[in-house]
Design goal:
about 40% helix, 12 strands, 8-stranded parallel β-sheet, TIM Barrel, globular, about 15% strand, about 280 residues, alpha/beta, single chain
Length: about 280
């Protein structure tokens, strides 16, 4: 592609530091103009009171940082659990997205109970995500489903079923390279199936042998090949860094206990290394 791609780089700045002020300051030093908001000061951003959310938005505005996506945990609940409490939280997250100026709201397709098959919950996942998509449409928002291990839509084939069932509604896909690798998926085949439904990338790579996350281009996610195809086809969405190279404060609250990859370390240094690796990879496309 001639070695030049115009891209919009975002990132999960809560992997830099738990304190929101430190997150924003570091994001500025790292040259980020966009952020994907998840955790701040010990809580998911969408669970802070509106006044606090507006303070956060003001701090971002002062640093010239926009919000690419509200990385909500909506859908990170057991498929068999009562949906109404989760629904009420989702509605609050949509309000938070408005406050933060984000159009995208990340969602998941519900954890499958141990010992049960994911296909048993296809109808439930489609019905609940459809309800969220319809609400998002009324709010002028778009829900973006992330493939994550253990939920209904953790494989490319099931993500495809969701995308086809919800085609034409306020629903799109997040493509997470590392998560597909960790589920034993071939990311090239996943992209072949899902590329036309994908509007957002989470930029982390992983090693198939260990499942551990590594900087983009150093794992088995075929990151460069897929991005080359995506930009060649006119991709215009965000690339959102989610390095997972070190542990971070919100991880215990927002991920299941078995998602223990990563080591203790300097969050800003790890994030800077991940950003440098991605920028180098993009320069070579």
């Amino acid at each position: 592609m001639g070695g030049f791609v115009e891209y919009k780089l975002s990132g999960f700045i809560d992997e830099i530091a738990p304190d929101f002020a430190a997150q924003v300051s570091a994001a500025g030093r790292l040259g980020l103009k966009w952020a994907e908001l998840r955790g701040a000061d010990g809580r998911f951003i969408g669970d802070w009171p509106e006044e606090r959310q507006r303070e956060m938005r003001k701090r971002l505005d002062e640093r010239g940082i926009g919000v690419a996506c509200l990385a909500s945990p909506a859908g990170k609940t057991p498929a068999g659990a009562d949906f109404e409490p989760a629904w009420e939280r989702f509605a609050r997250y949509c309000e938070c997205a408005h406050i933060m100026g984000a159009r995208l709201v990340r969602v998941f397709s519900f954890y499958i109970p141990e010992g049960r098959k994911a296909d048993e919950y296809e109808g439930l996942a489609i019905e609940r995500l459809g309800r969220m998509a319809d609400y998002a449409e009324k709010e002028g928002l778009l829900i973006a489903h992330e493939n994550e291990k253990g939920i209904y839509g953790d494989t490319a084939s099931r993500c495809l079923r969701l995308a086809e069932a919800l085609r034409g509604r306020a629903f799109t896909l997040v493509f997470d390279f590392a998560n597909f690798v960790q589920c034993g998926e071939d990311t090239r085949e996943a992209w072949r199936l899902l590329g036309r439904y994908t509007a957002h990338f989470h930029m982390k790579d992983a090693l198939r042998a260990t499942g551990g996350c590594v900087p983009c281009g150093e794992g088995d996610g075929n990151v460069a090949e897929i991005l080359r195809e995506a930009y060649g086809a006119g991709y215009g969405g965000f690339l959102s860094l989610e390095p997972h190279l070190v542990n971070f404060a919100m991880r215990r609250q927002l991920e299941r206990a078995d998602a223990g990859e990563g080591e203790e370390g300097d969050g800003e240094a790890a994030f800077a290394a991940a950003a440098a690796a991605l920028r180098a990879l993009l320069a070579g496309l």
